[in-house]
Design a protein that fits this description.
The strands form six sheets. Strands 22-23-1-24 form a four-stranded mixed sheet. A four-stranded mixed sheet has the order 2-15-17-16. By secondary structure, it is α/β, with parallel strands linked by helices. It has two domains: 4-20 and 238-440, UDP-n-acetylglucosamine1-carboxyvinyl-transferase, Chain; 22-224, UDP-n-acetylglucosamine1-carboxyvinyl-transferase, Chain. The protein has helices at 22-33, 48-59, 95-106, 118-121, 126-133, 169-179, 197-204, 241-253, 272-279, 324-333, 353-363, 396-406, 428-435, and strands spanning 4-7, 13-17, 36-42, 64-66, 72-77, 89-90, 111-115, 138-142, 146-152, 161-163, 185-190, 209-213, 219-224, 234-236, 258-265, 283-292, 295-303, 311-312, 337-341, 367-370, 374-378, 389-390, 413-415, 438-440. It has 13 helices and 24 strands. The model has no long low-confidence stretch (mean pLDDT 96). Helix 6 (169-179) links the parallel strand 10 and strand 11.
């Protein structure tokens, strides 16, 4: 446990670059492993979560390493070409890495054991293993369908036609990755569109993936199985909009601040937070700079703003599911009462994020009400009292969000463990310090 404390800051200013997008980084590693030949990757997030995925594919026979310049090199073995690992594959805290890797292994006639840390072993995996079982894989799971899981794949997986019961980019991606090895078409239907990095990157590697809008507004995604994936040679991973959110919201809240975060992915299915902040009156500017990994990239500028309350509808949740902790911090400082709906998915993230947000805000003098799938926050219209200690439950986004809150509260805020931040944003405290933030060991 490494507690961190943040205290009120006079102003924030400067230009920074966001860490590489975590979702895209996992997919870049896995797809590079399924090509024949080498792929070079710039900008890949080098954090605990992605290092676990890199170690897993290396153990499966597709070596992944990075050089002194931070460029990654992955030697792929082709679809179906991975080999049985000698030991257990430990995915640490990475739900994305674990679920997507289960999909990859379906099309390989080998057995492997996947595990993770305490947090990951508590997260549900049946939503992935149940449909993957229909494709011919076998799973032996811990109680409740959780990790550790022994997966036994097959050389001839069955194509799948599946409607997701709950919108989930991780489940969708796992099924598409499994469908690479299946003859025929694998079709996934989602009631609400979720982030589509897998579809974009599969096309980038030469797979035939189509997407059609359903009459109810959902999406039907179809993958032609057994393609020969072709390495694009080199990739550049854009900055993570979920990580960029923390310094940008801090700039909105600390008077007199202006911060620019460069090179951020602005995929339309990832910008729900920024839409919500704009509705709150945030001064946000987007300057397009190009494309990376099939997504548009922009420099984001945020200036201190007087925020007002917002109601975020349930249908927006899939476009900002990781950003509710930092949006809750913004709402705590805004004027008026904010309400977020459709948050049931937060119960099964790295922690029960809905409970963690509610408890953390209450500990710092913010009036908040939460139920099964919604959150109501009575904004302070300025700096909240602060002075509390936040139990992070090993959740990196809870830790970072409440460290941002402490930059504006009247009394310091302590998070019980800042070490988990390394899973997605190594050097967060130091980077924020470079902007002027006061974050240190208590």
């Amino acid at each position: 446990m490494q507690p961190l404390q943040s205290t009120a800051t006079a102003t924030l200013g400067g230009d920074i670059v966001a860490p590489g997008d975590k979702s895209i980084s996992h997919r870049a590693l896995l797809l590079s492993a399924l090509t024949v030949g080498q792929t070079e990757i710039d900008g890949l997030l080098t954090a605990e979560d992605t290092l676990a995925t890199a170690a897993a594919i290396s153990a499966l026979g597709a070596p992944a390493s990075y050089d002194e310049a931070g460029r990654w090199h992955v030697t792929g073995v082709g679809v179906g070409g991975l080999s049985a690992p000698e030991g257990v594959l430990d995915l640490g805290n990475s739900g994305t890495g674990a679920r997507l890797l289960l999909g990859v292994l379906v099309g390989h006639p080998l057995s492997a054991v996947l595990t993770g840390d305490d947090s990951l072993r508590s997260r549900p995996m049946a939503r992935v293993t149940e449909p993957l079982s229909r494709m011919g894989a076998r799973f032996v799971c811990a109680d409740g369908g959780r990790l550790p899981i022994t997966v036994t794949g097959t050389a001839d997986p069955l194509a799948l036609d599946y409607r997701l019961p709950v919108p989930s980019a991780q489940v969708k991606s796992a099924l598409l990755l499994a469908g690479l090895s299946a003859a025929g078409q694998t079709t996934i239907i989602e009631s609400k569109p979720t982030r589509d990095h897998s579809e974009r990157m599969l096309r980038l590697f030469g797979a035939n993936v189509s997407s059609e809008t359903e009459a109810d507004g959902g999406k039907r995604i179809t993958l032609e199985g057994q393609p020969e994936l072709v390495s694009p040679g080199s990739l550049t991973v854009p900055g993570d909009p979920s990580s960029a959110a923390f310094p940008l919201v801090a700039a909105l809240l600390v008077p007199g601040s202006r911060v620019t975060v460069g090179g951020v992915c602005i995929n339309a299915l990832r910008t729900g937070l920024y839409e919500s902040l704009s509705e709150m009156g945030a001064t946000l500017e987007f300057a397009l700079t190009g494309e990376a990994c099939g997504d548009s990239v922009a420099d984001l500028h945020a200036s201190a703003s007087a925020l007002r309350s917002v109601t975020v509808p349930a249908e927006r949740a899939p476009r900002m599911i990781d950003e509710y902790p930092i949006l809750a911090v913004a709402a705590a400082c805004a004027s008026g009462t904010s309400r977020f709906e459709g948050l049931d998915e937060l119960r099964v993230k790295e922690s029960d994020r809905l409970a963690a947000i509610t408890d953390g805000l209450a500990a710092n003098g913010v009036t908040v009400e939460g139920d099964a799938d919604s959150l109501t926050i009575m904004g302070a219209g300025g700096p909240p009292p602060g002075g509390g200690t936040v139990v992070t439950h090993g959740d990196h986004r809870i830790a970072m969000a409440f460290l941002v809150l402490g930059l504006v509260t009247r009394r310091p805020v302590i998070v019980d463990d800042g070490s988990t931040i390394a899973t997605s944003f190594p050097g967060f405290a130091e980077l924020m310090g470079g902007l002027g933030a006061c974050i240190a060991r208590p």
